[in-house]
Every structure is written in C-alpha cells, then in structure tokens.
Write a structure and sequence with these properties.
By secondary structure, the protein is of the alpha+beta class. It has a domain of 93 residues: Double Stranded RNA Binding Domain (2-Layer Sandwich), CATH 3.30.160. 46% of the residues lie in helices and 14% in strands. The protein contains five helices and three strands. A three-stranded antiparallel β-sheet has the order 1-2-3. The longest helix has 21 residues. It starts with a helix and ends in a 6-residue tail after the last helix.
Length: 136
C-alpha cells in the first residue's frame, strides 16, 4: 500500500541545515537544505512483507541504524524542499514495492519461421545469380 502525505508526516523526522554552493547571502543565512529521515521498521502503515521488501531493495540507501535519508536542497525555500523530500520518499516506496512480472517465454510462430527461411532462400538465389559462371 502506498502511503499518503499525512501518513508519512507522522513517521518521519526532518533535519534542516544551510545549503552549500552558489547562492550568495541567501545560502549563508537561511537553512533551506532539508534531510528527511525515515525509519522503515517503525512505519505503521507498512506490512511486515512490505518492510522486508523495502529494506531489501533500498539496502544501499539505508544506514547502519536502519534509517533512510533523503536530501533536497534545490529550492531556496525550506518548505519546497520539504515537499520534494516527501514526494521523493513516496516515489521511492512506490518503485520499491512494485513487483515485476516474470517474463514467460513464448514459442516463435511457424509462420514467422517459414517467412524467415523463404527470405533467406530468396536472398541466397539472388546472390547465386550474381556470381560469374564457372568455365569447365
């Protein structure tokens, strides 16, 4: 089940800091960088199977304490960066919980095989005609 914004806000914490890089005075005095911290194991809106699946798929993004960190510092506004981190988290959860279907191998239809062989024979005869005749 994909959570909505209200459910996520109950189970995450935010940490703000000053953004780095270009930006002049705004960067130097405003804490617009937002880090969303999400503990998968304490999320009450996820089932145990979903928690395991998320932990498995996002294992390279989870730290030693089992926390998932998502950072946004693109906008000048702290509020906009908070919104972006929430949407990033929802998107991550959606993509991680999506189970891909196994591909079933299909048999090549006889008509396709016959058409390919006819084309090969036609190409072969075309090239055979182009050859110089052999002198005995």
């Amino acid at each position: 089940m994909i959570p909505d914004k209200a459910q996520i806000l109950k189970s995450v914490s935010f940490k703000t800091s000053r953004s780095g890089g270009k930006g002049g005075q705004n960067v130097n005095k405003v804490s617009s960088k937002v880090e969303l911290i999400f503990n998968i194991s304490s999320a009450d809106f996820l089932s145990d199977e979903e928690k395991l699946l998320l932990s498995d798929k996002l294992s390279n993004r989870i730290d030693a304490e089992g926390l998932l960190h998502i950072v946004s510092q693109e906008d000048r506004s702290q509020l906009m960066n908070k919104e972006k981190t929430i949407f990033k988290l929802i998107d991550l959860i959606r993509k991680s919980l999506l189970v891909e279907k196994k591909r079933k191998r299909t048999k090549i239809p006889k008509g396709v095989i016959e058409k390919r062989l006819k084309n090969k024979a036609a190409n072969s005869s075309k090239k055979e005609i182009r050859k110089k005749p052999e002198i005995d």
